[in-house]
Specification:
Radius of gyration of chain A: 19 Å
Strand content of chain A: under 5%
Helix content of chain B: 25-40%
Number of strands of chain A: 0
Structural class of chain B: alpha/beta
Shape of chain B: elongated
Oligomer: heterodimer
Distance between the termini of chain B: 51 Å
Strand order of the largest sheet of chain B: 5-6-7-3-8-9
Structural class of chain A: mainly alpha
Radius of gyration of chain B: 24 Å
Number of helices of chain B: 12
């Protein structure tokens, strides 16, 4: 049996020794932060002209995470590349010859990559929160307010889970082009269309990103009929991820490398 | 030691590897020979547990590959030079492999030095030439100081200096008592490195023999004779009980008789000769004959188990009715004498 500690260390070397890691994670952090601050600045100027109902249900915390929708795309790219690069470069044959226990190989790779995304995501989340709240000025929320700390940590969890889901999908599909070609339009377009059209809203809110992003909400919108709370939503996202992981693992174990 | 028992691999309806049974022994270089598409790479991938056999087993020192703890310290393999991430430096590529098998970090520098890549250790392998990539692949194979080494077409794309280096490396590794298994589709290359030979064609075992034996049985020497009076010459040769084959442009090829004797015979018969020249068929030719005949051989033998060279010998292409066959006749081809007689 391959020793898990050895394989974890090996996977860490793999991740830190390619440039795409810095590029994708850096882009995710910067895009999330900059977009968040930009939206917060605009909202602050607009606040007084907003209808009263929207002012009452104003979620200062969630507004600062407005850039997450864009930033997550870079996280998806990171997740896809971590796995599919093994296949597109042929490295997978060296990797599996070194670690023939495919479950150990996959678990260690995904664990290291997800842990890294969580750390980067958490730092991004806190930085975005503080920068966004500063931009909001008098309408800001504080970390000590009820639910806010959970939402901010949730931002890191959300990013980690999004990346892990992408890794699982890439394990199934192997090709980076195919994986990105499915994941990017899905999370950038399809999911938000389904979530915003009232006829499909009921389906749309069970999609991984919509359910999962609930964890970053502090104030429930008025007339919101979502049947789950922040943790319920995140659990739905975890469910999607686990399902994708199981399929990915079964395929990896069965396929020729 | 690598043991294959009835190893079989199907891809849908295609049979890539068909009941391969042989043993690769330590201390010598074993050549694994076959034309492109014969199933060499598939066989090697199954040895490493990368592809799952449809049937049969491979054992390395008595164990399945997946049962090996830190497999790189048992088996080192060069499958293809491209089995690496181009964006990673040579040193980091080796480091991540070393770490996964608990091999000390210092070993990375050692193998880079050994293959002559120490000066580009920090460079990304994307910019490497084919030969450098091949050397890095060999460094990865040597990383765990393994007792068993597999090389799939290691000389592909190497310059003469690199080829020379690889040949010596493989011989040295074998001389240290390691098991060295190297595939190639070039007989001439194998003749220079391998002591033992395993030949496959269309996934089936064609020969499992020592190189010396293979050369002895397959390197045919003959004498080419050309005469304007071809029929008279033939009659004479058959009367003497000689093995004759049709050569190019009406020439005749006579086996196992020195040129001197043929000249004397012709002189006694007052036959005009336009050519009388001793010839040596290459090993490459013998190998091509061996692998080209696979299908026909099995058709004629009712699908029996494939014989070794020792037992049956290579097979020539079909013998046209009323015409003489062309091509070399290996010495082991004893049972075929009848048709030569019958023809005359």
């Amino acid at each position: 049996m391959a020793v898990v500690g050895q394989v974890l260390r090996s996977e860490w070397t793999k991740i830190r020794s390619v440039r795409s890691t810095v590029w994708t994670l850096g882009t995710a952090a910067v895009v999330t932060l900059v977009t968040g601050v930009l939206i917060c600045t605009l909202v602050r100027k607009d606040f007084d002209s907003m209808p009263e109902q929207r002012q009452l249900s104003f979620d200062a915390t969630n507004i600062s995470f407005a850039g997450m929708g864009l930033g997550q795309l870079a996280m998806i790219v990171f997740g896809v590349l971590v796995v599919s690069n093994e296949y597109s470069t042929g490295m997978i044959r060296s990797s599996l010859a070194a670690v023939p226990q495919r479950g150990v190989f996959l678990f260690c790779k995904l664990a290291v990559a997800t842990a890294l995304v969580f750390v980067v995501g958490l730092v991004t989340s806190f930085a975005t929160f503080f920068a966004g709240q500063t931009a909001l000025g008098e309408h800001r929320a504080y970390l000590g307010d009820p639910g806010v700390l959970r939402a901010v940590i949730g931002g890191g969890l959300y990013m980690a889970m999004m990346a892990l889901f992408s890794m699982a999908v890439a394990t199934m599909l192997r090709s980076p082009m195919l994986s990105l070609g499915i994941l990017m339009p899905f999370f950038f377009l399809v999911s938000s269309i389904l979530g915003n059209v009232s006829a499909t809203q009921k389906v749309g809110r069970y999609l991984p990103d919509q359910a999962g992003s609930r964890i970053m909400q502090v104030v429930t919108p008025v007339n919101d009929a979502t049947p789950y709370g922040p943790w319920g939503g995140f659990t739905i996202m975890v469910g999607w991820t686990v399902a994708a992981l199981v399929v990915g693992y079964v395929l990896l174990n069965r396929r020729d490398a | 030691m690598i043991e294959l028992r009835g190893l079989t691999k199907h891809y849908g309806d295609t049979v890539a590897v068909d009941h391969l049974t042989f043993t690769v022994r330590p201390g010598i270089v074993t050549g694994f020979l076959g034309p492109n598409g014969a199933g060499k790479s598939t066989t090697m991938r199954m040895m490493l547990g990368l592809d799952k056999p449809t049937a049969g087993t491979v054992r390395i020192d008595g164990k399945h590959y997946r049962q090996l703890k830190n497999p790189l310290t048992y088996v080192g393999a060069l499958l293809d030079a491209k089995a690496m991430h181009g964006g990673r430096s040579a040193a980091n590529h080796l480091l991540c492999l070393a770490q996964s098998n608990g091999i000390p970090r210092a070993r990375v520098g050692e193998v880079l030095d050994l293959v002559g890549l120490a000066s580009v250790a920090g460079k990304r392998s994307k910019g490497f030439s084919l030969g450098m990539g091949q050397r890095l692949g060999i460094a990865a194979a040597l990383l765990g100081n393994p007792r068993v080494l597999l090389f799939d077409e290691p000389v592909n794309g190497l310059d003469p200096e690199g080829i020379h280096w690889i040949r010596n490396l493989m011989k040295n590794l074998a001389a240290q008592g390691r098991t060295v298994f190297v595939s190639s589709h070039l007989m001439s290359e194998m003749a220079l490195t391998a002591e033992h030979l395993v030949v496959i064609g269309q996934g089936r075992l064609l020969a499992d023999t020592s190189m010396a034996e293979f050369i002895e049985q397959n390197s045919r020497s003959y004498v080419r004779v050309r005469s304007p009076e071809r029929e008279r010459l033939l009659t004479m040769l058959y009367r003497e009980g000689m093995r004759v084959f049709a050569g190019e442009a009406g020439a005749l090829e006579v086996d196992g008789v020195p040129a001197e004797r043929l000249g004397e015979l012709a002189a006694a018969e007052r036959l005009v000769l336009h050519e009388l020249s001793p010839q040596q068929a290459s090993l490459e030719e013998a190998f091509m004959q061996l692998t080209a005949g696979v299908v026909e051989y099995h058709a004629r033998n009712g699908g029996g188990p494939p014989p070794t060279v020792q037992g049956g010998g290579p097979v020539r292409s079909a013998v046209p009715q009323g015409a003489m066959s062309r091509g070399p006749a290996p010495a082991g081809w004893g049972t075929d004498r009848q048709w030569q007689r019958k023809r005359s």
